[in-house]
Amino acid sequence: MSGFIATLERLDRRWIFLAMAIAVAGPIVYIGITGKTLPETSTPAAQAVYDAIEALPKGSRVLISYDFDPGSSGELLPMATSLVHQCAARDLKMVFIALWPLGPQMVTDTIKRVITADFPQMKEGVDYVNLGFQSGNEAVMKVMLTDFKKAFPKSEKGTATGQIPMLEGVTRVKDFPLLVTISAGYPGAKEWIQYVVSSSGGEITMVTGCTGVQTPQLFPYFPAQLRGMLGAIKGAAEYESLVNASLAPGDNSPVPPKYLEAQRRMGPQLGAHLLMVALIILGNIAFFAQRREKAQVKS
Amino acid sequence: MSPSKSWIVIIAVIVALVGIRLSIGQGMGKVYVEQVDTVVEVEAVAKTKDHDGSPAQTVKWTQFNGVEPNKYYAAQATNPAQTVVTLSWPRTFGLWLGAFFTLAIFSFMYRDNPGYRLAEAVIIGVSAAYWMVIGFWDVVVPKLFGGIAHGFVIANVLPTLPAPPTEQVIAMWFALGLGGILLMRLSSKGAWISMWSLAFIIGVTAGLKIVSHVESDLIAQSVATFKPLISPQAGATGVIELGPTVWASLANILIVVGVLCCLTYFFFSVEHKGVVGRAARVGIWYLMITFGAAFGFTVMGRVALLAARVEFLFDDWLWLIDPAGKRVVEVAAAAGSFLFQ
Known about the structure:
The complex is a heterodimer of chains A (299) and B (341). Helices cover 52% and strands 11% of the residues of chain A.
């Protein structure tokens, strides 16, 4: 036992890195080859996001803000894909904006992967539009409260916002029955709550998908100021599972792999978390054994 | 083994493994593109005070869209001489560069090395340059120059930029003035003048943030804390159910107790002894659980990012796995499916 404890105390941290690499890579290879994913049960926060979208009447406008970049796409792109999938399947009109400079490229990618590929009947400008990036962070949000077209005067392709058919009648952000932000940091979900939801006196319904780092900061806002929340890749997997279950065709045909991305990433999560738990237990064993040893030496 | 020798061994092993992988099946790390020719008829634009006008014209361009390898194989099988779907050398180079930088960053976990330092320097340099370009083309050109020299901007740079309202023109002259003053920081004698711009920035930011924080964090969060300690939960039939009522009430009690105890912990005007001390102790437990949850979520986030990079290496670069069905079944995948199924 003392030899084992001594080995733990002297353990080179690079062995832990190697163990983590195996814990993450192993499930990725297994899931990548077999296509098997772990079952998911939705939590109230993820269910609330799904319900908020389901509650919208057909043809409603949804404002979707892509407040992230490729640096966090591993966590956030799967939830963005599922979100657009549900909105498109529910015949909702999607207005994409971005407060992060690389957001519009992420929007274009999602439009190609989901709308162009699976909903070719949807027309740009009529069913969806990408209004691109606007610099100014909170200032853009404040302007949107009073004059939406001033905040986003033209689309990504250069069409004046006033000439886009699906934006007819939109003057303020309040004209959207649902606001969705996929958020990786600043500006993101917290700023949307502070500058838009709170300033509107609770008239604006907002849901968010956010990174793991942001999730604990945003939980206090749920459910009063934030109607629903997808916290990290776990929230994405729960939501993805809900959307796939509701949109599954009756003929038992498999779900396209692009709609299983978050569930696939829960495999490496399981491996990494089991390793982390094991390491914490081992670390504590070593700590208490060392303390006991010192106490024995003193006495 | 000396550090340089161990690096030579590691790189040799990686190169050998990649070489073996390249020789199996369809190889690895290739990106294909589809050539799409687009023709658009542009209507004539009448001459206005902001625009010189332009005649009707036909605009043509060719777009290269990334496609899955399966599409290339299908196109080749139909017509081996086709040139619509082709291998893209620049994108393939980009993919290999991405793989190199990913491995270079990971290599730091073993030991600091020139590959890691190169990747780090490239990331910082590219990020700084990208932000500068974004700042220039998304802020300075459309907002500042678009406000104070709109005619020049639409004639030379952004033809679709809407005309600014008068208040924007005034605001932009004001912003230009403040921006110029801010640059006085570079002067040893006139640096104090830049304080005016800084004072304006701090004042506006504080003004915006105070109002929003009071509304969303102080008032709304205080309201959210006022919870009934007993929260009866009615079922579908309208009858109050014991189980959900107990859980909902317990959740509310935990929130109220937690808020009071955490506030007590940060209240230093009274010595933390007796009831106050015990409440502060409970507050510490709440804080520790909160930090633990935050740590757990951070780990989850980081593992998700790591998983995305490993997926990139295995799927896009090495072609070892194919979860999205982008290629025909590869040798490694076939061997894997034999092992796992």
